[in-house]
């Protein structure tokens, strides 16, 4: 158990180091230039149908983040299944801790939203708060990773990561997060879920 914890602690520290690296080189770096190019390209190629789907995903991601552990808890109570109840705690803890870390990093980094930093990036709507990392990406990937770790079946893994990936993409498509914001969110959420794996049954 101690070896497993140490392994995931190192992974988690690597994620934090990656986040720090991205921020240290963001100013007029190649990453920033790449971010801007991607965002402008996405904005220029939007369609009404794609925009509707992206808005739906972005507005409703919390139903997955909250609904998955809630469903596991209810199922565990109804079936008197201790393993399911403990997996509910694992998924919920992963997502909640990821959310807290995301808020902390946002507060420390204070990266402006893409449309604030570059007037050539036109968003579908103007989100508030700060940009780095993407909270939608971090929590959905934390939920998907924890759920897939607890139930490693293809019919759990595939839809979980399809939902998390589509939600993360929607944040770039809508013009409210850079690709590097999304990548950092994915790394943070995945790393947190893996670090907390000893909680699962």
TrEMBL record:
Topological relation to the membrane, as annotated: Multi-pass membrane protein
InterPro entries, sorted: PAP2/HPO, PAP2/HPO_sf
Keywords in alphabetical order: Cell membrane, Hydrolase, Membrane, Transmembrane, Transmembrane helix
Gene3D superfamilies: Phosphatidic acid phosphatase type 2/haloperoxidase
Keyword Ligase: no
Coarse class of the protein's main subcellular location: membrane
Superkingdom classification of source: Bacteria
Residue span, Phosphatidic acid phosphatase type 2/haloperoxidase domain: 88-197
Subcellular location: Cell membrane
Pfam families: PAP2 (PF01569)
Key word Glycosyltransferase present: no
Classification via PANTHER family: DECAPRENYLPHOSPHORYL-5-PHOSPHORIBOSE PHOSPHATASE RV3807C-RELATED (PTHR14969:SF62), SPHINGOSINE-1-PHOSPHATE PHOSPHOHYDROLASE (PTHR14969)
Protein name: Phosphatase PAP2 family protein
Phylogenetic classification of the source organism: Bacteria, Pseudomonadati, Bacteroidota, Sphingobacteriia, Sphingobacteriales
